[in-house]
């Protein structure tokens, strides 16, 4: 452990409450203030006991039991019990919480009743003892333990969250290695300090997951464009680098610049209920006009490999190579002509503004326009309105999808909901996969579902995910600097 303060530069979190922090910046903060029941080894992604000492999935896949560790405490001192999970999980699902993460618990019995306001608590969460918890499911799901590696499933104390919900959102209390020192004021610096009452038995991390730095300060600002300059001036120890600053950060940061793969894929998504994009021939022709390799070289310095799959590589590293959709604008025109497809009147590509997408989005639109001989434009939209508008857009759009937990189900099912795509054959395969006990056999069924999607192309994979960070030489860690999600393992950073 160190007595120093780790200084981290972030964008602007939408929330820092474990139950509601759904995007990158908020999740990074929640990652140090909350521990899930099980956690992912940063180097391998293997599930390991965290706030639970162990778990067992029923042979039929319809339930999972967690044995909670004794002595795990909230930041205000009280011991965490099974009843706290009954409250916290129900709170995530409750519509008044407004959590974007509620669907992770859609497999739990009672989910629909809580969402509809017919019940305050999930009936499938059963308290079998002070430190024994059972989760019953509406259908088989043998990957269920992975869901409980997500921080949204971490405990929160009802006596604090219910007494002052607005205040709790700005100063959440959970069971992680750091605790907030004061309420968060959006736009201002946020400080967390090492929690001396932390249980320090999280088997996924060195030193049981205890924090190494005495304090972490998070400087938040929605504009990351100047973050690398703050880093070079020595004002911060860790910062994310946006795509528009990759070249200069790599040049000026030297070995401090880090590129790490993450289980995300960037897609060109189609509104499959809107003509002419309801025609898979049109979707394929558009895809054949996107020069993914050239755009990637021009805007990501070649750091993001072209994606040919829906499943991120970390979930299925041994998969056989999938069919490749070539860059072939002339072939795209011949395809449309040979199938008598309705031609595009124009191509409008929408993407969220302010995140460095402008250059590549413009190139993508221009390529489709030139390839098909139609007017084309890339149109930015304010991020929150863009996200809230999914999947109801009337034209193609940029869709990033990163798995929230390490299961192929998290890569496919939520992605299709975000894209607004329904297909009975794919849904049958997903249901079948969830009921397969053997992990390798289960993955094979998910591959079948993926093959159907790559044929129908409701989403066209563009690039595999990568995150870019600058990390100061002041930082030392006994484990990897980044986890399998590409995120900095801040709890392990000493300064």
Task: From the structure above, extract its key features.
alpha+beta; 16 strands; four-stranded antiparallel β-sheet; globular; 495 residues; eight-stranded mixed β-sheet; 29% helix
C-alpha-based Rg, rounded: 23 Å
Give the averaged pLDDT, no decimals. 94
Q: What structural class should be given to the helix and strand makeup?
A: alpha+beta
Structural shape: globular
Largest sheet properties: 8 strands, mixed
State the helix count. 16
The residue fraction in helices comes out at 25-40%
What's the N-to-C terminus distance? Answer: 9 Å
Number of strands: 16
Percentage of residues in DSSP E strands: 15-25%
Order of strands, widest sheet: 8-9-10-1-11-16-12-15
Q: Could you name the ranges where pLDDT drops below 50 across 5 or more consecutive residues? A: none
Could you explain the architecture of this structure?
With 495 residues, this protein is an alpha+beta fold. The chain is built from 16 helices and 16 strands. The N and C termini lie close together (9 Å). The model has no long low-confidence stretch (mean pLDDT 94).
